[in-house]
Amino acid sequence: IRATPEKLPSGRKTGTPAQFDMALIADRPHSLHLHTLEVAQVRAIFTLPHQFGAYSRALAYVEWFTPFKPPDPSSRMRQVSRSTRQLR
């Protein structure tokens, strides 16, 4: 999973937009049914400063999306949208 900040143009190099990976998160580790998966977008990957103690693993800030909606009749694709409340 990646979270890459925007790179501004420098000299002859063109800039690149920020890129943030999407993730499917299983709230039940042994079940991969669609209704048990939640969608999130990784916005930052970071580590805590030493003043907060020794925590050796990277952390991620994520934005949650709404649960999957029923499939669209014409495309048969399911839709999600950014959540304005926790997982709603």
Please give a structural write-up.
This protein is mostly beta strands. It has strands at 3-4, 19-20, 22-26, 37-46, 59-64.
Q: What descriptive keywords fit this protein?
A:
88 residues; mainly beta; three-stranded antiparallel beta sheet; two-stranded antiparallel sheet; 0% helix
Layout of SSEs?
Elements lengths: L2 E2 L14 E2 L1 E5 L10 E10 L12 E6 L24
Antiparallel strand pairs: 1-2, 3-4, 4-5
- Order of helix and strand elements from N to C terminus: EEEEE
Arrangement of strands in the largest sheet: 3-4-5
Q: How many separate helices?
A: 0
Helix content: under 10%
Any low-confidence stretches, pLDDT <50, length ≥5? none
Describe what is shown at a glance.
With 88 residues, this protein is mainly beta. It has strands at residues 3-4, 19-20, 22-26, 37-46, 59-64.
